[in-house]
Amino acid sequence: xxxxxxxxxDIRKLLDELAAEGQIPAGLDTARLTVEPPREAAxxxxxxxxxxxxxxxxxxxxxxxxxxxxAKLKTRPDVASAEIAGxxxxxxxxxxxxxxxxxxxxxxxxxxxxxxxxGGQRPVNVEYVSANPTGPLHAAHGRGAVFGDALAALLEKxxxxxxxxYYINDAGAQVDVLGRSxxxxxxxxxxxxxxxxxxxLYPGEYLKEVGQALAERDGNRWVGADEAxxxxxxxxxxxxxxxxWIKEDLGVLGVxxxxxxxxxxxxxxxxxxxxxxxxxxxxxxxxxxLEPPKGKKPDDWEPRPQTLFKSTDxxxxxxxxxKKSDGSFTYFSNDxxxxxxxxxxxxxxxxxxxGADHGGYVKRMQAATTAITxxxxxxxxxxxxxxxxxxxxxxxxxxxxxxxxxxxxxVIEEVGRDVVRFxxxxxxxxxxxxxxxxxxxxxxxDNPVFYVQYAHARCRxxxxxxxxxxxxxxxxxxxxxxxxNLARLDSxxxxxxxxxxxxxxxxxxxxxxxxxPHRVAFYLYDLASDxxxxxxxxxxxxxLRFLIDGDEEVTVARLALISAVATVxxxxxxxxxxxxxxxxxx
Length: 586
What we know:
This protein is of the alpha/beta class and about 575 residues long. It contains 20 helices and 15 strands. The chain has a 5-stranded parallel beta sheet, with helices on both faces. The chain has a 4-stranded antiparallel beta sheet with strand order 1-2-4-3.
């Protein structure tokens, strides 16, 4: 149960009652009405803006309308107090039993606690990673992979029908460069001295593996052949090989894709022609001359007629070229076709996860998506900023295999999949992330992955001791939900935990709506902090310990509480793609 949504709906019913009584006009627009935790915990448990947003249409001062709502709310048995704050906010304190009942909700639902029908099974396409198949994945790819995967899981928990997609950029100049680089390494594998890698080709050591594999498959077949013959073979072989590496790396990271889409296949199927004809039929394509780019002198600019998309009609800064000077399509044209294809497959809610270097591409792609789908589809682009890899504060050396960067596989092998996934979500996607190999494995409060996992492990440890202390007792979630007398939970720290867990369903919905999975990591850290506070209090005050000799009723109530804590942590970690640990070892 999302207690905040319950009260939001109930306040709407109270407004209907006030309208029926003639106190306010009927049919007020309550779309902006919210119920949320107050900014200051001392102000209460829930706060609503109802009187603030409805005062003007209701023809009353905000505090006068707030007084009418407070009078209604005070009659509810689950409301301990209702007060007006500031210009007209209404703050509520709920009875302790409301929060205790949320513990029972957790125990009843298990890790499904927090699942929502918010999305109504609306189809949503989340496209992420989509690295060019020209080399192994690096750490920044890993951040986009974790972010996209966690966002997809979060949307599923909020009730959306999610499709995870990887777009293979296997058309264009970069894969031709890959083909030529592979041909060079192929010749090297056959014993030729290739000397220095020419400028413009990929220098990474990983291509030696590709060249060797091609030589083993084809022998001398391409020696002395024309480029027109060997380039497609080398290119296709390299793309297939590197995509297998990428899929293996994603598998090690725990990322699974539902769909792999090929840019080359899309172009070959005529999808670009189809998309551009749709734009042309709507009068959105014309031949024109663009203004010189900012920062260029007029004599540096060669104006020429180009086929342009009216991107400025849809919020972009300038109109965008659709064809190159040689008549071939631009990358932009291919991307328009791709997003049109997603729309035609039934995805009007589209989310793309891109690297930070694509920031200048966002407006044109959103404009194109709106135009090509006639406003039926929306595109949200989430940019993932850089990851700074360090060890004890010093930048780490580059991977020998990759030549210019640290591979994602290197990072996973160093600290483990779960650490990588958790740490990648400890900052907003639009903020740079410092990933220190030494700090992310520290056993301290400053390391969020340890701190959260330690809370889960402590809960599980207590439950194992309880199984020994209470032989024969049924300590399953269902049994605890049925028999625990939760009224025995009355300390400030116990109620803080109950209240924190009650906000999990709201967090799931708000994070899903904002497309911000990092909120899950922040929430789990706060929940772990509340739990550790109770644990530490029990060290000094023995009456607050979880297992109380001679008082099985309070022991069972507290076991229900920590079982719920472990369950909510596991629920949150599942969204992040992290496995909860049963015990931590030094």
